[in-house]
Design a protein that fits this description.
Elements (H helix, E strand, L loop, with lengths): L14 E3 L2 H14 L12 E6 L4 E5 L7 E5 L12 E5 L2 H17 L1
């Protein structure tokens, strides 16, 4: 997987850069939770951010679209292909506009 420089992200609360220790745990957790048929099953993922007020993690998927996913971790082995809940974004700009900015606006209320 190509390196992605998460330092280019201008994080807005409730989203934050993820620590290396938490990233390792979030990457292991998503692989533990997914069953065959999940949209990310078998894909390489790299945790780069997290939402402080829930169990959402932002993963980098690589250069080919979709390149980013927000996954709501459930902390259990799932048997349904639609869990853990996952939203895909083709670009960082798409994630910023469709997810981070609206989340920040809602969080500020």
């Amino acid at each position: 997987m190509t390196k992605f420089d998460a330092s280019q992200i201008q994080w807005r609360e409730p989203w934050h850069a993820i620590s290396p220790d938490y990233a390792t745990k979030a990457e292991a957790e998503i692989h533990r939770e997914m069953c065959a048929g999940h949209v990310l099953f078998g894909r390489s993922v790299r945790a780069i951010g997290y939402r402080q007020d829930c169990d959402d993690v932002l993963y980098y998927l690589g250069e080919s679209a979709p390149s980013f996913a927000v996954v709501h971790l459930s902390y259990q082995k799932e048997t349904r292909t639609d869990w853990p809940s996952t939203a895909l974004f083709d670009t960082l700009t798409a994630w910023t506009e469709q997810c981070m900015i609206p989340d920040a606006q809602e969080f500020a209320l």
